[in-house]
Amino acid sequence: MDTLAMLGPAALYMISMTLTPGPNNLMLTASGANYGYWRTLPHILGIVAGCFVLFSAIALGLGLLFERFPLFQTLLKIIGSAYLLYLAWKIASAPPPDLRLRGEGRPLTFWQAAAFQFANPKAWVMGLALMAGFLPEQGSTWVDALLLAGFAELVALPCISLWAGFGMAVGRHLKSARAWRIFNGLMGTMTAATVVFILG
Description:
This is LysE family translocator. This protein is an all-alpha fold. The protein has eight helices and no strands.
């Protein structure tokens, strides 16, 4: 019963966290615009799978490493920020879809998106707060952690999908190469700007 009672508040928490801008959502918007929803779907599912594994691992002890060793937090910020800047550059420098060479410019794969969550400081913060705030103190930690992480990602799936859908809708209105370059530059700049909040 304790677990079930936590699901409502946990759902509200996940909605508020996954509907707000962040590295994942900005990249999904850019991907949806450039490649469409279906080609972005592996990216979406990779985020969901990566966060599920990360959140479960946090509940089962990985979170203690994050809390007890400040150096680990610093390394995570540096690695995550460096990778974000690389992805931001890739987004900003992407040519318009009709000018790309065949095979050039691809959305993130399932595995790339899943692995990125372990270097994504926002995913860590979200997982730590989720498990600290909503994991029941009684019962099986394994079962409750997997249930809570799985439920959280079920809630997150439609929320992050909206960002890819939003990007796809924007992409339909970009009629010129100049408009595409402005859009991709803006999305790349906004993705890079998240590094300021990560390192701040």
